[in-house]
Amino acid sequence: MREISVSELKDNMFDAIGKEWMLVTAGTPEKFNMMTASWGGTGILWGKPVAFIFIRPERYTYEFIEKGDKLTLSFLGEAHREIHKICGSQSGRDIDKVAASGLKPYVTEEGYIGYEQARLILECKKLYADFIEADNFVDKLLINRWYGEEHGGFHKMYILEIEHVLVK
């Protein structure tokens, strides 16, 4: 992997996040977890390049995100859809996702967890976090569509500074 500047990133992030999906990984080289995510985005906020993601507290990865300030967003490409299916449907509490998926993790120069299969890795630092709240919805129909017994609790939103961009 080689580093590029954020301004050199040519990906359509609507497609990368919403269609290709991403792995959100947090923790330490000794103990980490990852999950598939398809909600989020990128942009500029507070004069910084940022990504924003949404994680339900029920997810095992949430515990790792809460413990540290750094995480990665890894984009594996369409060829690795099976990895995303495993990491999005199985809990790291119950299985070894690395073994089950065939992921090949490594520690980046900055100490983040990356994957050999990734075509793009965003190394990120947490800047802000807050829960989505029912009272703040303008379109109340979204609450029943995405939350409740059938779907799960409200997400926590994280705004992340993109510190490094790695590409193959």
Automatic annotation (TrEMBL):
Annotated Flavin reductase like domain residues: 20-165
Pfam families: Flavin_Reduct
InterPro entries attached to this UniProt entry: Flavin_Rdtase-like_dom, Flavoredoxin, Split_barrel_FMN-bd
Domain of life assignment: Bacteria
SUPFAM superfamilies: FMN-binding split barrel
PANTHER family: FLAVOREDOXIN-RELATED-RELATED, HYPOTHETICAL CYTOSOLIC PROTEIN
Family assignment from sequence similarity: Belongs to the flavoredoxin family.
Protein name: Flavin reductase
